[in-house]
Every structure is written in structure tokens, then in C-alpha cells.
Design brief:
By secondary structure, the protein is an alpha/beta fold. It contains 17 helices and 14 strands. Bound molecules: zinc ion. Keywords: Aminoacyl-tRNA synthetase, ATP-binding, Cytoplasm, Ligase, Metal-binding, Nucleotide-binding, Protein biosynthesis, Zinc.
Length: about 475
């Protein structure tokens, strides 16, 4: 299948451009991964979810994607955190890599094709620093090695900053012997008690930025297609990666730069029940993972997103509506065969609209709107079908259900069995409300008995009693079910 035409906003040119991969049909994607000194922050989780959907959609559109997301497991923050816990930095980093993997799985993030760690790539890092020193764009100073921003004329072309202002604004840290305040460390001389490796400049460890230059080149080549990360990484991290890589290779580094907007925690800070929830792990303890994905994807990836209790609760309600619709549709037409024939209306239009919105810079917010139309059509066909022909309605519902499966793989939503998802949501609501499940089920059983003996007055009274408890009951094709209203 020929790959589709996708437009994306390139931070380098500040314009939407058509994605033309260097090798037709193949796309290399590098996303800066977590620094593993703690549980991943909810803002980072948004960034990783955005790129998860970018990768899924590129694949859906027929591109062969190689997705690389690193772990920064050598870093000042890790050393500091390890000092506080009394662990070895390596052990602390390994523990949080594992925690990240668990959280990422819970959030339905695809495992990247390669998840390299800094500590496994010292030879590659030393090689690129050596090249930069040989070329005269980096210099050694008392066991540190710095990149010389003045030796690379294109410095700051991604962030569009002014080099003179940068040089004036930067302060030299005590102990640093840099030629220019804006020069940055490629290699840091070992300090007592810190992890270190041998190098031509003595024992030390890599600076932060060089790892991504080394690991992207190793797994995607010196030139690759899409480099992604959070907006906060443009400067200095991505600027520095770019300078090192292009100065070393003499080639274009990333051909497209994509940046995900900030997650604004103000709303959450003011919220009592969320308190100061900032880690993905804590958020997943309170909200359904697909609801959290839905919440992230409801805003365009480049726009700021305000994190709030209400936003999460609304997202979960919306997911409940979607899953209730799917349960109903599955009960009606799941596994059934209908005589072949035409479909009612034009059900394929929702998927086409979804695709055209996603083709336009991965507009997931718009695409979810198209999905609302699709679910609306499914509800209409199940609740009040506009035509009497049952086979026509059945075929159309099955076609729509199939399209939900297709978008499910792109968004990482609706991946669960509807009744399982709804039960989990109910269990969570039961816990939050402190409901007595035995009592609810006793009342439910009594209502079934009352209906059996056609005592409808008693059945209605029991329904009212359940309602007073905050329980809503629904008689479905598969029997009576209840949910927390
Ligand atoms: Zn990076």
C-alpha cells in the first residue's frame, strides 16, 4: 500500500510540511525518553502518549516505522536522588526504568522498537566526542570536554535564539573552565562518589545532550526523519543535540522536529481531591488509563493542556458512553451474519473524516470529534433505527464497529472488552462512593424475583431504592446490569 500524505508542523521551519521520509515508506522516529530518577511526571506521560499516537498512526497509514525512545540513566538528578535514598545510582536508575515500563504498559504505550540506555552506549558517546574534538568544535579543559558554540555557525537555529544574548545570559558554574559561557559539557570529569568511565580525557561521565546524538545515530543513522520531545526540550537539549550531531557528521540531523505542548498543573494544584498529583502512577491509581489517554488526546498535541479533576472525570464519563455503546452494538450484532447487501447512509464517512484530520498534523482532538459522530450513528441504529430492514441495520452496525476497531489501534482506546471495562469502572466508582455491593445485589435479586411473579409495583419500588443509593439499572439483551450513576 502506498503511504498516505501526512502533514506535520516542523519546529525548525515553524510550518506545516508534508512528511517525505528520507527512505520512501520508512520513517525513523527518535523521542527523548525519561530521566529515570523518579516516577514519570504526568506532563511527560502526555508527551509520550502523543508520540505513541504519532507512531501508531504512521504505521496505520502504511509507513514502516522504527521508533527509538531512550532512558537517561546517567544524570545529576539520578546521583542526587541516589544520595537521598542511599542506593547506588545504577540501582536507583534500574528501579525507575522498571517502574516506567510498568506505567507505560498501563497507559497502553507501545514498546518502542529500541529503548537504549546511556550506560550501555559509552563507546558510541566517546566516539562522537572524539570526532568533535578532532574537528576543533570541542575542547578539553581540566578533564571536562566542552562544545564550542562559536565554532558551529548554525548554533541556535532550532530555538531561534541569538548567540550573543545567549553568551551574555549564561553564567559559568564554579569550577568550570569554559571559553564561552554558552559552551556546554560533552564530558564531565569524575567527582568522588559518582559513576564514571574511562575516556581519553580521564575518568568521567557524559553530559546530558550527547547521549541522544550518539544513540539516534546508532539506531536511526546520522540523518533520520522525526525527532520528538516536550516543548521544554527545544532549548538547550535539542539545540545542543543538533549542534553536536551536525558538527560531527556534516549532515542534516533530524529532518522534522515535533514538540508536544505543556501540561498545565495549575488546575490540579488548586484541586483538593487531586492534591499535588503529578506522577503518572498516582494518576493511574485514580483514573482509567484509557480515560487518561482520551483526556490527553482531546487537545491537540502542540497546545497547552490544563490538567484538572473535572477534565479527567469528564473524560471517564465519555469513555463510559463509548463503551456502553459498544456493549450494546456487540450484543445486537456481534458474531452474527447478515445477508450481504448495501449499507444504510454512508457509514465510511466517519473513518475518512478521522483520517483526514489525523493526516493534518495528527489532529487527535478533531479526530475524536469524528468518532463522536460514528458513535452517535451506532446509537441511532441500535436505539431508534431509521429503517426497518434488520439486515441493513445489522450490516451497517457491523461496518461501524469494524471502523471502531481500526481507530482503536491508532488511539490506544477501546482496546478492552466493553463489559470488562464497564465493570472496572463500576468497581472504582463503588470504592469511591463506599457502596455496599452485597446490599445492591440483594436489591437487584429481589427485583428480578418481583418481575418474575409480575409484581411490577414492587420491582419499581426496588428500582427507586437502588436509585436512592446512587445505582442505575439497565435491562440489556444480556440481562440486567447496574452502574454507579
Ligand atoms: Zn534527547
Amino acid at each position: 500500500m502506498a503511504a498516505a500524505s501526512i502533514r506535520l508542523f516542523n519546529t525548525m521551519t515553524m510550518q506545516k510540511e508534508t512528511l517525505v521520509p528520507e527512505v520512501p515508506g520508512k520513517v525513523g522516529v527518535y523521542v527523548c525518553g525519561p530521566t529515570v530518577y523518579s516516577y514519570v511526571h504526568i506532563g511527560n506521560a502526555r508527551t509520550f502518549t502523543s508520540f505513541d499516537v504519532v507512531v501508531r498512526y504512521l504505521r496505520y497509514r502504511g509507513f514502516e516505522v522504527r521508533y527509538v525512545r531512550n532512558y537517561t540513566d546517567v544524570d545529576d538528578k539520578i546521583i542526587k536522588a541516589a544520595r537521598e535514598t542511599g542506593e547506588q545510582p545504577v540501582a536507583l536508575a534500574a528501579r525507575f526504568v522498571e517502574a516506567f515500563r510498568e506505567d507505560a504498559r498501563a497507559l497502553h504505550l507501545l514498546e518502542p522498537d529500541v529503548s537504549p540506555k546511556v550506560s550501555d552506549h559509552l563507546p558510541e558517546i566517546l566516539r562522537i566526542i572524539g570526532t568533535l574534538v578532532d574537528k576543533g568544535v570541542a575542547y578539553e579543559s581540566q578533564g571536562d570536554v566542552y562544545f564550542s558554540v562559536r565554532a558551529y555557525p548554525d548554533y541556535a537555529k532550532l530555538s531561534k535564539r541569538n548567540l550573543e544574548e545567549l553568551c551574555m545570559g549564561e553564567r559559568v558554574q564554579p569550577g568550570e573552565q569554559k571559553r564561552e559561557p554558552a559552551d556546554f559539557a560533552l564530558w564531565k570529569a569524575a567527582k568522588p562518589g559518582e559513576p564514571s568511565w574511562d575516556s581519553p580525557w580521564g575518568k568521567g561521565r557524559p553530559g546530558w545532550h550527547i547521549e541522544c546524538s550518539a544513540m539516534s545515530a546508532r539506531y536511526l543513522g546520522e540523518t533520520f526523519d522525526i525527532h520528538g520531545g516536550g516543548l521544554d526540550l527545544i532549548f538547550p537539549h535539542h539545540e545542543n543535540e543538533l549542534a553536536q550531531s551536525e558538527a560531527a557528521s556534516g549532515k542534516t540531523f533530524a529532518r522534522y522536529w515535533m514538540h508536544c505542548g505543556f501540561l498545565d498543573l495549575e488546575g490540579a494544584k488548586m484541586s483538593k481531591s487531586l492534591g499535588n498529583v503529578v506522577s503518572l502512577r498516582e494518576a493511574l491509581g485514580r483514573v482509567d488509563p484509557e480515560a487518561l489517554r482520551f483526556f490527553f488526546l482531546s487537545t491537540h498535541y502542540r497546545h497547552p493542556l490544563a490538567f484538572s479533576d473535572k477534565g479527567l472525570a469528564d473524560a471517564e464519563l465519555r469513555m463510559e458512553y463509548f463503551y456502553e455503546t459498544l456493549r450494546k452494538v456487540d450484543e445486537r450484532v456481534g458474531g452474527k451474519e447478515f445477508a450481504p447487501g448495501p449499507l444504510h447512509g454512508e457509514p465510511a464517512r466517519f473513518l475518512r473524516e478521522f483520517e483526514s484530520l489525523m493526516d493534518d498534523d495528527f489532529n487527535s482532538a478533531g479526530a475524536l470529534g469524528a468518532l463522536s459522530g460514528l458513535f452517535g450513528a451506532m446509537n441511532e441504529l441500535t436505539d431508534k433505527p431509521p429503517v426497518k430492514d434488520k439486515a441493513l441495520v445489522g450490516r451497517t452496525l457491523q461496518a461501524l464497529r469494524e471502523d471502531v476497531r481500526k481507530v482503536s489501534g491508532v488511539l490506544g482506546l477501546f482496546e478492552d472488552e466493553p463489559s470488562h471495562w464497564l465493570l472496572r469502572r463500576r468497581d472504582r466508582a463503588v470504592k469511591e462512593r463506599g457502596l455496599d455491593v452485597a446490599r445492591v445485589e440483594g436489591l437487584m435479586a429481589a427485583r428480578v424475583e418481583a418481575r418474575k411473579v409480575k409484581d411490577f409495583a414492587e420491582a419499581d419500588r426496588l428500582r427507586g431504592e437502588l436509585k436512592a443509593l446512587g445505582v442505575e439499572i439497565m435491562d440489556t439483551a444480556g440481562g440486567t446490569v447496574w452502574k454507579v450513576a
